[in-house]
Amino acid sequence: MGILDKISEIEKEISRTQKNKATEYHLGLLKAKLAKYRSQLLEPSKKSEKGDGFDVLKSGDARVALIGFPSVGKSTLLSTLTKTESEAASYEFTTLTCIPGVIEYNGANIQLLDLPGIIEGASQGKGRGRQVIAVARTADLVLMMLDATKQDVQRQLLEKELESVGIRLNKQKPNIYFKIKKGGGISFNSTCPLTKIDEKLVQMILHEYKIFNAEVLFREDCTADELIDVICANRVYLPCLYVYNKIDQISIEEVNRIARQAHSVVVSCNMKLNLDYLLEVLWEYLSLIRVYTKKPGQPPDFADGLILRKGVSVEHVCHAIHRNLVQAFKYALVWGTSTKYSPQRVGISHIMHDEDVIQVVKK
Ligand SMILES: Nc1nc2c(ncn2[C@@H]2O[C@H](COP(=O)(O)OP(=O)(O)OP(=O)(O)O)[C@@H](O)[C@H]2O)c(=O)[nH]1
Ligand SMILES: [K+]
Ligand SMILES: [Mg+2]
């Protein structure tokens, strides 16, 4: 039996099995097996992907991958938001490779990747699914484009495809400490009550992965699936924005309903509706910030801000200015929302906010 057959056998068995206390261990084990086969499926394809138009170099301050069914309007969006033209047409699979474009926003260069449409079964190699998904893994954000005139199952299907290859959308990494040891058996602990898993199931899952010596510490009430994610260690956690296109074709009530959903933006690429708002939300979801530098006695350099990630410290800013600046650092003066006073003297570990101004004082 090939891996694909084994996967579909296990999937069938999981859907056949009723979820209750009595089947909990059985299901946990099935899921561990499933995750194992799926990761095997992903490995060998890596080599053959060079030179087929999908190995686009990363450039700019962030990378966004356009994922969606055929003909939802991905290429139309790329051609509208960037200077790059990507062919758009009313037939499916117009786009066959990865087409990069650049969105210029708030002084940042955001790389937007137009990709072929993907369909159900993409993760198992249907269409160009595997290459598309491999590109999605390298992105800082997934822009999932959906056709607002179609049923919402399209979204669930795509989520399932990405989920099955270890891409986790709008989720935090499970807070489980996990370390494989050379001996000593399995030490299992938790800092909170666990309602979705117990020690026996943890043991069973680890044994399925042939792990007999490890330290496991649950710091939150995680599920068996989340434990499997931590064991596999190859999961990527990406923010995802659901962009519903073609709202020119649906009623205003329907537009309102969709716009209220979490992580969702409604647009019409053809009519250029709501694209400014899309860029605003995109910026927010990418967690980008601008920091302006200032020399003593001079105004801040607002024309040329540094593009950084939310949560960066003064140390990161110094590195971005010059690689030797940290050694010479004495203190910094910061103007903006990250400080109580403007300016305020801060140390190297101070956390910066969007649109802060900084002046570094050297030793
Ligand atoms: N009504 C309407 N049609 C749109 C809109 N945006 C794109 N389209 C149309 O949808 C069709 C498909 O657009 P594409 O940009 O080629 O879609 P795609 O997702 O890149 O398609 P593939 O590359 O084949 O996966 C074209 O006929 C577009 O003109 C929109 O906002 N409203
Ligand atoms: K198309
Ligand atoms: Mg296209």
From TrEMBL:
<dbReference type="InterPro" id="IPR005225">
    <property type="entry name" value="Small_GTP-bd"/>
</dbReference>
<dbReference type="InterPro" id="IPR031662">
    <property type="entry name" value="GTP-binding_2"/>
</dbReference>
<dbReference type="Pfam" id="PF16897">
    <property type="entry name" value="MMR_HSR1_Xtn"/>
</dbReference>
<dbReference type="InterPro" id="IPR012676">
    <property type="entry name" value="TGS-like"/>
</dbReference>
<dbReference type="GO" id="GO:0003924">
    <property type="term" value="F:GTPase activity"/>
</dbReference>
<dbReference type="InterPro" id="IPR027417">
    <property type="entry name" value="P-loop_NTPase"/>
</dbReference>
<dbReference type="InterPro" id="IPR006074">
    <property type="entry name" value="GTP1-OBG_CS"/>
</dbReference>
<feature type="domain" description="OBG-type G">
    <location>
        <begin position="62"/>
        <end position="287"/>
    </location>
</feature>
<protein>
    <submittedName>
        <fullName>Developmentally-regulated GTP-binding protein 2</fullName>
    </submittedName>
</protein>
<dbReference type="InterPro" id="IPR004095">
    <property type="entry name" value="TGS"/>
</dbReference>
<keyword id="KW-0547">Nucleotide-binding</keyword>
<dbReference type="InterPro" id="IPR045001">
    <property type="entry name" value="DRG"/>
</dbReference>
<dbReference type="InterPro" id="IPR006073">
    <property type="entry name" value="GTP-bd"/>
</dbReference>
<dbReference type="Pfam" id="PF02824">
    <property type="entry name" value="TGS"/>
</dbReference>
<keyword id="KW-0342">GTP-binding</keyword>
<dbReference type="InterPro" id="IPR031167">
    <property type="entry name" value="G_OBG"/>
</dbReference>
<dbReference type="GO" id="GO:0005525">
    <property type="term" value="F:GTP binding"/>
</dbReference>
<dbReference type="InterPro" id="IPR012675">
    <property type="entry name" value="Beta-grasp_dom_sf"/>
</dbReference>
<feature type="domain" description="TGS">
    <location>
        <begin position="287"/>
        <end position="362"/>
    </location>
</feature>
<dbReference type="Pfam" id="PF01926">
    <property type="entry name" value="MMR_HSR1"/>
</dbReference>
